[in-house]
Design a protein that fits this description.
CATH topology of one domain: Immunoglobulin-like
Organism: Myxococcus stipitatus (strain DSM 14675 / JCM 12634 / Mx s8)
Structural class: alpha/beta
Protein name: Lipoprotein
Distance between the termini: 84 Å
Radius of gyration: 21 Å
Strand content: 25-35%
CATH architecture of one domain: Sandwich
Length: about 210
């Protein structure tokens, strides 16, 4: 009996350490870093969208930008604008999804892990709800300006507005990727705008 318990302990510990060592490997590679966050959005929700981005299907009805409209022009001397969108995902209710065999095994290992090793750092609760990844492509910049939010709007901050104003006179492209997540797992979507919305920032009047 003692041998069996020791074997169980050793096997569980080895498995846990193996998973812990590989924990960082499943994070999406991004040379641009994480986006800005709004509402209840989390980095785990962002990773779920990054993993699924290639599968995003064009859909004009799920999320629709109400501001800005395509072709909109902003004066660089004006205050940072507020962008907003409507979404059919916003009225969605949590959709129960049966756990997969992998999820069940991961939960069991998590309990073992808490027993064997203390948690190194706290994670935010799993995200459930509609999520929106707004991406602004700026001419001359390798990385887009991005916001991940659970809200239906984005009040641009001063730093973001300064970045956009630096490309005054050029065309900016705004894309929105949306999805519904249940505990960090995408259950609906992701969707994207069929065509990005284009806007311009005009140099302010001296």
């Amino acid at each position: 009996m003692r041998l069996s318990r020791n074997l169980l302990w050793t096997t569980s510990a080895a498995t846990l350490l193996c998973l812990t060592a590989a924990c960082g490997d499943d994070k999406p590679e991004s040379t641009c870093g994480e986006p800005l966050y709004g509402g209840d959005a989390t980095d785990e929700a962002w990773r779920a969208l990054v993993d699924a981005e290639a599968r995003a299907t064009p859909n004009a009805e799920v999320a629709r930008l109400t501001s800005p409209e395509s072709g909109a022009s902003y004066d660089a001397s004006a205050a940072p604008p507020r962008w907003a969108w409507s979404s059919t995902l916003a009225s969605a209710q949590p959709r129960p999804a049966p756990p997969s065999a992998f999820d069940t095994a991961r939960t069991m290992l998590a309990h073992v892990g808490e027993w064997i090793l203390p948690t190194a750092h706290a994670h935010l609760p799993p995200f459930t709800g509609d999520i929106y990844w707004v991406r602004v492509t700026v001419p001359g910049r390798t990385c887009p300006v991005e916001m991940l939010t659970s809200n239906l709007d984005w009040q641009l901050d001063a730093a973001t507005w300064d970045t956009l104003k630096a490309s005054a006179g050029q065309e900016l492209s705004v894309q929105v990727i949306s999805a519904y997540l249940l505990q960090n797992r995408i259950t609906e979507g992701p969707y994207r705008l069929p065509q990005p919305v284009t806007v311009r920032v005009q140099k302010g009047t001296p």
